[in-house]
């Protein structure tokens, strides 16, 4: 759906993008993360044909941003960080205006208006001036305008910036709903937003892509500078607590065991290991005992820790 190939962008002598490449498949919700000035917004503006790259290309649904700019724009819905809303227009008139800009066929207008008003939750405010709306509703109107022409791809730049916590949750849910039908690319510096909405995260720093994976894999693979790991297990055993700890500490690379709960011989423990992946060895050890294992889970770092690990010292 989106194929980015060696994009570079200079502003005078400053290189904002340094030959980035990535692929986005149809139906993905992908978050682009990075510190301020990392190149996130520049990337989106190039993909939406607002900026030309200094070099490189992007192929969007089989169309080059360099050679087929007008056709690319027709299949993209773009919501910039500061949505271009007109406060004196009512919501209905604004959506009709956006449909005209996107050259939506008149025969499809009523159908698309009905869809965007419903999916974006705008029924109650459809006749109100945009200037009277809350920030949350204004962002909904911006999203509705971005999808009025039924684009295949939705590109959002900081979609929850400036919203209160309740509004943020509402917009996140809306993004996930839209992601059921469209490919979505979201630029944000709010890490919890990516964890809550995205199936994949691309981290950009100083114009380079430094990580590209699912939020879960990023948390597992980049959460620590060292190779240590933390494992939670739940077991059933008649052994007393001290005996359980002593036996687990005999397993290679385990250096600490904490008992979190102990009820009716079911013990929940946190195991700290110097091994990057100790679960196989822990499982083999437990199988050699008379213990019954109910659960074994590796604790992942949150994405905020990952982000700090990958970008610290470079902001």
State the main characteristics:
34% helix, Rossmann fold, 4-stranded antiparallel sheet, 6-stranded mixed sheet, nucleotide-binding, alpha/beta, 315 residues, 11 helices, single chain, Alpha-Beta Plaits, 2 domains
Describe this structure in words.
By secondary structure, the chain is α/β, with parallel strands linked by helices. The chain has 2 domains: 2-222, P-loop containing nucleotide triphosphate hydrolases (Rossmann fold); 229-299, Alpha-Beta Plaits (2-Layer Sandwich), CATH 3.30.70.3100. It contains 11 helices and 14 strands. The chain has helices at 40-47, 69-74, 91-101, 106-119, 135-147, 165-178, 191-197, 215-222, 241-249, 279-287, 303-311, and strands at residues 2-11, 14-24, 29-33, 55-60, 63-64, 76-79, 153-157, 183-188, 200-205, 208-213, 229-236, 254-263, 266-273, 292-298. The longest helix has 14 residues, at 106-119. The chain starts with a strand and ends with a helix. The relative contact order is 0.14.
User: What is the H/E string?
Assistant: EEEHEEHEHHHEHEHEEHEHEEHEH
Please tally the β strands and state the result: 14
- Please give the CATH class of the largest domain: Alpha Beta
For the record, the count of structural domains works out to 2
């Amino acid at each position: 759906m989106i194929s980015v190939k060696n994009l570079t962008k200079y502003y005078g002598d400053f290189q904002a993008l340094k030959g980035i490449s990535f692929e986005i498949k149809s139906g993905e919700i992908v978050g682009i993360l990075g510190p301020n000035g990392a190149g996130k917004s520049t990337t989106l503006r190039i993909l939406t044909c607002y900026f030309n790259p200094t070099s490189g290309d992007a192929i969007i649904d089989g169309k080059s941003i360099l050679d087929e700019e007008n056709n690319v724009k027709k299949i993209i819905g773009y919501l910039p960080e500061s949505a271009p809303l007109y406060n004196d227009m009512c919501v209905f008139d604004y959506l009709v205006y956006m449909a005209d800009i996107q050259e939506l066929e008149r025969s499809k207008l009523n159908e698309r208006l009905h869809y965007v008003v419903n999916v974006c939750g705008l029924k109650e405010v459809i006749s109100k001036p945009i200037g009277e709306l809350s920030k949350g509703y204004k962002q909904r109107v911006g999203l509705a305008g971005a999808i009025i022409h039924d684009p295949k791809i939705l590109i959002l730049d900081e979609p929850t910036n400036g919203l209160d916590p309740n509004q943020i949750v509402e917009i996140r849910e809306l993004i996930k709903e839209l992601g059921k039908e469209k490919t979505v690319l979201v630029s944000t510096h709010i890490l919890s937003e990516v964890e809550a909405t995205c199936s994949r995260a691309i981290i950009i720093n100083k114009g380079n892509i430094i990580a590209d994976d699912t939020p879960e894999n990023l948390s597992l693979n980049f959460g620590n500078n060292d190779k240590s790991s933390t494992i939670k297990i739940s077991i059933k055993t008649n052994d007393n607590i001290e005996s359980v700890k002593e036996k687990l500490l005999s397993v290679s690379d385990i250096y600490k065991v904490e008992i979190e709960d102990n009820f009716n011989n079911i013990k929940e423990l946190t195991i700290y290991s110097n091994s990057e992946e100790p679960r196989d060895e822990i499982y083999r050890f437990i199988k050699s005992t008379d213990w019954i294992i109910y659960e074994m889970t590796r604790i992942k770092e949150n994405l905020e820790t990952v982000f700090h690990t990958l970008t610290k010292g470079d902001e």
